[in-house]
Amino acid sequence: MKKFLSMLLAVAMMMTMTACGGSKQEAPAPEKPAENTQKEEPAKSDSNLDESALYAIGGGATGGTFNAMGAVFTQFFNDGKVFGQFSATATTGGVQNVMFMENGTCDFGIVGQSVFVQAADGTDSFKETGANENLKIIAPLYSAIFQQFVGKGIKSEADLRGKKLIVGGPGSGDLAIAETLYGAMGMTFEDFEPLYLGSNEGAETMKDGHADGAIALTQLPFSIFVELTNADKAYLIPLEKSTIDTMCETNGHSYPSYYPSVIPADTYKNQTEELPTFATGTYFCCSGDLSDELVYELTKYMWENIEDLNTLHAAVANLTIDAVKDIADMPIHPGALKYYQEQGIL
To answer: Is residue 8 assigned to a domain?
Structure first.
């Protein structure tokens, strides 16, 4: 009897296991929402700009502010990430930047006001190429102050005759200015020995005593000449009023190139008095062939992030959009102009 009951119990247990599928399955756990393994992409611009496009910015000679500005804008716009890829192109300065924008080597360039005027009118360095109607301004950057540095024994403009004077590298804005400047002093390059050197090479040449003078048209103070003046290898001389007046005349040009200015006292070592001189604007320029949309977006990005740009170089540390009013009557790219009009600046 016990044997029969044991068999009956075994059969009942087998039937129970069969009903359960023959295994100890647990109730399925509630499903978890699928995890998103993809990283969130940054919001994209509503524009149709090609983020893979390549653009070149013409700067200037090594050690100069134009060179630094080319690098600054390359970094600044690459941080924007939606305009394309920017690179800085080493050049001899403003004149070459204009030529490079004209022949397609560069899309953008740093150009001084005086060189811009010469290019627009087809004069001086651009006599052979003629008036350039394709060169456009995107934004003003900083005021460049003319500075005449000299070595021992030179106290006035008259003392420059017969000396070795650094006039800037070939194709540089300094060279274009030097030709006009020394002409305003009543001299040609035959009245002294011109040395065609850029900022760094020129400074080293003065430091070694192989040059008697060098010019700079840049912000105050200019770091390279701070070193020279601190080492008593160079000092500033003032310009005569007649020279400044001649430089500031329009002389039939479409736009003014220069305006009177001063170098404040104590800008450099042993410079105890304010020195009269002249100044000019500096512009971020581009080829007129660039699309209105691209230039509009770049202009918008620049001014909406101007505080970031201010930190990248001393020359633009105090730049504000109000400076745009100074270029109201000059050839501004339509894309930039659209932004300025929207902001009520122009």
So the answer is: no
Per-residue 3-state assignment (H helix, E strand, C coil) for the chain:
CHHHHHHHHHHHHHHHHHHCCCCCCCCCCCCCCCCCCCCCCCCCCCCCCCCCCEEEEECCCCCCHHHHHHHHHHHHHHHHCCCCEEEEECCCCHHHHHHHHHHCCCCEEEEEHHHHHHHHHCCHHHCCCCCCCCEEEEEEEEEEEEEEEECCCCCCHHHHCCCEEECCCCCCHHHHHHHHHHHHCCCCHHHCEEECCCHHHHHHHHHCCCCCEEEEEECCCCHHHHHHHHCCCCEECCCCHHHHHHHHCCCCCCCCCCEEEEECCCCCCCCCCCEEEEEEEEEEEEECCCCHHHHHHHHHHHHHCHHHHHCCCHHHCCCCHHHHHHHCCCCECHHHHHHHHHCCCC
Confidence (pTM): 0.73
Band (48; pLDDT cuts 50, 70, 90)? confident
In a domain, 270, yes or no: yes
Q: What is the pLDDT of residues 108-125, one digit of tens each?
A: 999 999 899 999 999 988
- Is residue 213 assigned to a domain? yes
Q: Tell me, yes or no, whether 98 lies in a domain.
A: yes
CATH of the domain at 254: 3.40.190.10
pLDDT in the model for residue 44: 43
Boundaries of domain holding 141: 54-342
Q: How many structural domains does the chain have?
A: 1
